[in-house]
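re: ur msg from earlier - yeah i can do the glutathione complex, just paste it... oh wait u already did. ok heres what im feeding in:
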Amino acid sequence: MTITITAFERSPDGGKGLARDSRVRWALEEVGQPYKVLPVSFRAMKEPAHLALHPFAQIPTYEEGNLALFETGSIVFHIAERYAGLLPDDAHARARAITWMFAALNTVEPPILELATARLLEGDKPWNEERLPLVEDRVRNRLAQLSARLGNADWLDGAFSAGDLLMVSVLLRLKLSGILDEYPNLAAYLARGEARPAYKRAFDAQLAINTTQPTS
Ligand SMILES: N[C@@H](CCC(=O)N[C@@H](CS)C(=O)NCC(=O)O)C(=O)O
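and the outut:
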């Protein structure tokens, strides 16, 4: 059955892997499933056809036969449940990998997004100078905890899983900030994720649609 996902027609980051279709692409590449990408403009994202797929007018969405999904956590979970390669067979190990998926999205991603918002969108606010260090501390707190848990391991719980895929995807947003360098094992963890052939294929495909010229 054909899998179709949506992605930004023109990503604000120029296709450098921060738009969230990249984590869905990566999951599909890991499990070896071909997929089509439907690029959507910011205008089209607000129109009824897209809103029927995504009530919050965002990307990515995922369609497979008569199944339509939104929310990357749910999409990656669906891919990992349906195709082998992203969740262990052992029931407890599987539950722990799913726990890391939730931890990535619910516990680690929120302060990282808050920092991105504070830096990119609130830099001109008079209170930003006072607030920014507080937001950075919240990020550092989470990173220190994650770093302590990861220790010298390659991945969060045994073999690479959908938990790592989402955690690496979330940490990517910090890549250029320098903060990750304060936690060398996390910087190495991120690099390990980026070095996976499936990640590279996903990254290259996302970059390609952002660097080719529109036809009209
Ligand atoms: N929690 C959602 C977030 C989706 C999201 O924020 N998508 C961004 C692209 S990375 C988007 O569509 N932004 C445009 C907008 O919100 O108007 C998920 O994980 O799928």
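cool cool. The longest helix spans residues 91-120. ping me if u need the other ligands too
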